[in-house]
């Protein structure tokens, strides 16, 4: 119980000379004398704030109660608040803490927070690797893990404080014994004062230990509560476990053994009853007629809620009946192929070389687990009521008819992994079924893979192109799941258990698997010069004429049909057109503009309409608008610049996007002002240019504290800063240098694409990303620069100029070798010259890797022909080019439009759209480069490419 001033008084204490002591011995009296000695001001007592009418008027008033506060000891306050400026990251050590370790401190809970029992952790969070794993158990969410680590740190700090009090208490007790045994000095009153101070210190130590003990107990309770949130216990049951005695050996202590005993007893009782009194199997209920899909959709749409992931008492799982009346046979792992692609495996073998793709098509996709597959926990029955239940049942019937799922016999149901299956309302009406695979996705590996992006799509289009589109029906359902892994894709509904036979939507790796298979499928088409871009189940074809587009479309449909792909002709566009919608963009090859599709434009405007002054919106509405803006940037040239203000307005709210997603926010006039440009009628529909940039004008800039300078095609300009600017941050000076250089060279670069080269990465980021949030001063200057260049330049881009090029270890210390710096082995280049002729100009080289006497460089200003080949005219001679991957498309465009002849070194990657462009420019048979360890090198042969076989480099003789 809490201490009172009386508890800390020495009045009435035992002692042989207690009666001769004349000074006050209460805590406040002794502390007041101590404060006077230490020159610490003593605070005045606080009188009772207001009197009472019960005191009356005539009689003397009762003595008013006063509250005496203790003064603050300055050094104590300083030490207590030393780390408060950075309470989480401060690393100030506790002086003398290492000497306070005591006997059996781990066994008595004086070291660290009692760890959670591994068995409990694995039960409540099945995502753990294994309950016998040597690593400490962890929470399923990062937020809980962070809170747990802070709790543990607080407990350790309190435990150290108790160990300090332990040592201090022992010393104070020893001091009291010594004072009791020693004859006092001549000043008896001074000696008695010392003994009183010692006794009071001992009692204060007891008070501090009791407070620390209580705080440690609450921290243990807090950690228990965090783990119990993962269970489905009632509030009363949780309170009982929270109040179990603390045991340093384990978080739940004695309750753990009790739970295990109860579990074993229940298990033995159940086994005994099953042996002595076996349960009679229940007869299956009469099947109810299932409504058709049209009947379900015709019903009115009620309100829905996503069912919680709780353990409920499911309906008795009956033995499902087959159509003929018999029961379903046990599942066989050797069942026939269900994916439509697997049925055409012989055609796949004739055109695809990837062993992984062929194995996946033939045997099914094997789930790529990060560690071991998840263990079976329980059957999770999905819950739905009313129209939602009827819709789910109709959807399940449809999946059964498509052979996308199958029924699992009850005898095989106690294995695998179960996920929730539920419906959510669509924005336009109707319902959408959702298979919640988030729990399973946490067990899978994470891979990076490349898909078609809006930026690459814009480079894909040529002037005057004719387009068609193909839509693949039930895209993921084309690929089957490896039979032994189907049990991890199960769900249960209305007493029946189902499992997926094909690749499901919602699986984290489904897009990667499908993209790898479709890229392999269309590879042979690209080698035949057919230009097509694929985004999952959407395919865009481009031809130079309507007749070519029709011919290529027929060729693609024939080829993909042979491989087993099915098409949704209702969503496909088979009639060639020069304006088409594809993955949210409207592409116009006549105007060479890309705009947001009408649907996306209407969605954006509807979201913007919510943000009116005085309106209340939720935080998640703000983040939804930011997401819509980010997805539209490719078609809204200045979208990122005009998005910064709204980003800053949302950031200054300082709200957690997850925990406070439903928090309501009042839209202020400042918030409306940040969206003014986005609400302009033409802002969303102006569009962005299509095609590739073949050449850029290069301006190189630099700045220092005293001045700045810039160059452009041999022209020079420089200047000095005013004295007022010499104290400005160097990043601002570097950006000002870019602005001044552009203004100076404007007569030479107006109405052209400009590339700024600078050695300041911050300036590069603020130009390419149209401002930023960290530095308001830099953002204002970048905004001014970008708006100035908008009406004067076709485009503005910045790139970083590296420092002095080192070799070997220095090259590796910067991360990894750059693609554009690889040099082909001299013997290989000799073989190329013998086949296709001797070139005289190397377009992308350096003094180290050039194969021709004349060359352009990517970075070296001393190159014979200059920096950046795309910024200069090319000589009319046989050219040689080994460009970086990003420059292959503009290089081919330059060859095609200017009729150059070139030996191009590039990968033979069928999944890249530029392979079709290479094929269309060939004038001779290409040659694959021989594989050898030293095929590619850098740093004068000190570094070899680790995997030249992955590049699959070919020599392509091309001519425009």
Automatic annotation (TrEMBL):
CDD domains: RNase_HI_RT_DIRS1 (cd09275), RT_DIRS1 (cd03714). Residues 1-24, 267-331 are annotated as: Disordered. Residues 405-587 form the Reverse transcriptase domain. It is an enzyme of class 3 (hydrolase). InterPro entries: DNA/RNA_pol_sf, Hepadnavirus_pol/RT, Rev_trsase/Diguanyl_cyclase, RNaseH_domain, RNaseH_sf, RT_dom. GO terms for molecular function: RNA-DNA hybrid ribonuclease activity. The lineage of its organism: Eukaryota, Metazoa, Chordata, Craniata, Vertebrata. PROSITE patterns: RT_POL. It comes from the Eukaryota. It comes from Coilia grayii (Gray's grenadier anchovy). Belongs to the beta type-B retroviral polymerase family. HERV class-II K(HML-2) pol subfamily. GO terms for biological process: DNA metabolic process. Pfam families: RVT_1, RVT_3. Its EC number is 3.1.26.4. This is ribonuclease H.
């Amino acid at each position: 119980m809490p201490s009172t001033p009386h508890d800390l008084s020495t009045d009435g204490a035992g002692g042989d000379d207690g009666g001769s002591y004349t000074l006050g011995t209460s805590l406040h009296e002794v502390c007041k004398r101590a404060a006077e000695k230490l020159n610490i001001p003593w605070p005045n007592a606080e009188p009772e704030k207001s009197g009472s009418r019960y005191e009356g008027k005539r009689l003397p008033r009762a003595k008013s109660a006063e509250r005496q506060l203790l003064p603050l000891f300055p050094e104590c306050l300083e030490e207590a608040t030393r780390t408060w400026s950075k309470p989480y990251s401060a690393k100030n050590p506790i002086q003398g803490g290492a000497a306070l370790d005591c006997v059996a401190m781990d066994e008595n809970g004086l070291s660290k927070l009692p760890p959670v029992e591994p068995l409990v952790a694995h039960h409540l969070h099945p995502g753990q690797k294994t309950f016998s794993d040597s690593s400490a158990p962890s929470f399923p969410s990062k937020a809980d893990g962070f809170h747990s680590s802070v709790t543990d740190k607080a407990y350790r700090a309190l435990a150290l404080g108790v160990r300090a009090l332990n040592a201090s208490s022992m010393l104070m007790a020893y001091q009291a014994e010594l004072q009791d045994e020693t004859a006092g000095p001549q000043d008896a009153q001074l000696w008695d004062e010392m003994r009183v101070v010692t006794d009071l210190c001992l009692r204060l130590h007891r008070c501090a230990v009791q407070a620390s003990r209580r705080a440690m107990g609450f921290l243990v309770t807090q950690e228990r509560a965090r783990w119990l949130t993962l269970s489905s216990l009632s509030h009363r049951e949780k309170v009982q476990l929270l109040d179990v005695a603390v045991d340093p050996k384990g978080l739940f202590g004695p309750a753990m053994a009790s739970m295990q005993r109860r579990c074993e007893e229940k298990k033995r009782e159940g086994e005994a009853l099953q042996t002595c009194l076996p349960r009679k199997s229940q007869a299956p209920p009469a099947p109810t007629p299932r409504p058709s899909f049209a009947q379900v959709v015709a019903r009115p749409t009620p309100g829905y809620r996503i069912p919680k992931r709780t353990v409920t008492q499911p309906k008795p799982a009956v033995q499902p009946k087959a159509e003929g009346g018999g029961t379903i046979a046990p599942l066989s792992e050797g069942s026939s192929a269900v994916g439509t692609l697997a049925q055409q495996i012989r055609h796949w073998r004739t055109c695809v070389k990837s062993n992984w793709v062929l194995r996946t098509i033939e045997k099914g996709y094997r789930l790529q687990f990060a560690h071991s597959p998840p263990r079976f926990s329980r059957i999770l029955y999905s819950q739905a009521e009313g129209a939602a239940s009827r819709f789910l049942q109709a959807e399940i019937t449809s999946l059964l008819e498509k052979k996308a799922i199958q029924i699992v016999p009850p005898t095989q149901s106690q294995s695998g992994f179960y996920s929730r299956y539920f419906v959510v309302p669509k924005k336009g009406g109707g319902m959408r079924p959702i298979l919640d695979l988030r729990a399973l996705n946490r067990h899978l590996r994470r891979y990076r893979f490349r898909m078609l992006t809006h930026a690459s799509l814009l480079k894909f289009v040529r002037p005057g192109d004719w387009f068609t589109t193909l839509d693949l029906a039930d895209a993921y359902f084309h690929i089957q799941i490896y039979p032994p892994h189907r049990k991890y894709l199960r769900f249960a509904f209305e007493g029946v258990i189902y499992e997926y036979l094909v690749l499901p939507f919602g699986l984290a790796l489904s897009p990667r698997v499908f993209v790898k298979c479709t890229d392999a499928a269309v590879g042979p088409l690209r080698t035949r010069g057919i230009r097509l871009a694929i985004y999952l189940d959407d395919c865009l074809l481009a031809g130079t004429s309507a007749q070519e587009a029709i011919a290529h479309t027929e060729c693609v449909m024939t080829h993909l049909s042979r491989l087993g792909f099915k098409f949704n002709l209702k969503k496909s566009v088979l009639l060639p057109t020069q304006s088409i919608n594809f993955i949210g963009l409207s592409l116009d090859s006549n105007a060479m503009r890309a705009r947001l599709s009408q649907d996306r434009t209407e969605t954006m405007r509807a979201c913007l309409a919510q943000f009116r002054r005085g309106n209340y919106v939720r935080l998640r509405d703000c983040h939804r608008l930011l997401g819509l803006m980010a997805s539209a940037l490719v078609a809204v040239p200045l979208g990122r610049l005009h998005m910064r203000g709204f980003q800053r307005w949302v950031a200054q709210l300082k709200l957690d996007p997850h925990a406070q997603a439903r928090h309501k926010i009042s839209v202020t006039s400042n918030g409306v002002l940040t969206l003014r440009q986005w609400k302009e009628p033409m802002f969303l529909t102006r569009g962005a240019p299509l095609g590739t940039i073949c050449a850029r004008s290069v301006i190189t800039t630099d700045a220092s504290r005293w001045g700045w300078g810039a160059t452009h095609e041999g022209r020079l300009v420089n200047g000095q800063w005013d004295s007022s600017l010499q104290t400005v941050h160097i990043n601002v000076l570097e950006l000002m240098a870019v602005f001044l250089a552009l203004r100076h060279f404007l007569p030479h670069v107006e109405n052209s694409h400009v590339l700024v080269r600078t050695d300041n990465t911050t300036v590069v980021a603020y130009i390419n990303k149209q401002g930023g949030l960290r530095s308001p001063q830099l953002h204002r200057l970048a905004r001014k620069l970008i708006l100035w260049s908008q009406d004067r330049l076709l485009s503005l881009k910045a790139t970083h100029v590296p420092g002095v090029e080192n070799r070997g270890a220095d090259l590796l210390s910067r991360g990894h070798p750059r693609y554009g710096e690889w040099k082909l082995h001299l013997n290989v280049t000799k073989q190329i010259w013998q086949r296709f002729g001797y070139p005289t100009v190397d377009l992308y080289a350096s003094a180290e890797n050039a194969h021709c006497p004349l060359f352009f460089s990517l970075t070296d200003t001393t190159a014979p022909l200059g920096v950046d080949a795309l910024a200069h005219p090319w000589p009319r001679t046989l050219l040689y080019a080994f460009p970086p991957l990003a420059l292959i498309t503009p290089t081919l465009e330059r060859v095609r439009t200017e009729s150059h002849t070139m030996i191009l070194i590039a990968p033979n990657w069928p999944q890249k759209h530029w392979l079709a462009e290479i094929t269309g420019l060939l004038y001779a048979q290409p040659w694959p480069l021989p594989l050898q360890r030293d095929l590619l090198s850098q740093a004068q042969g000190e570094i070899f490419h680790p995997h030249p076989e992955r590049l699959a480099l070919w020599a392509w003789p091309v001519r425009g």
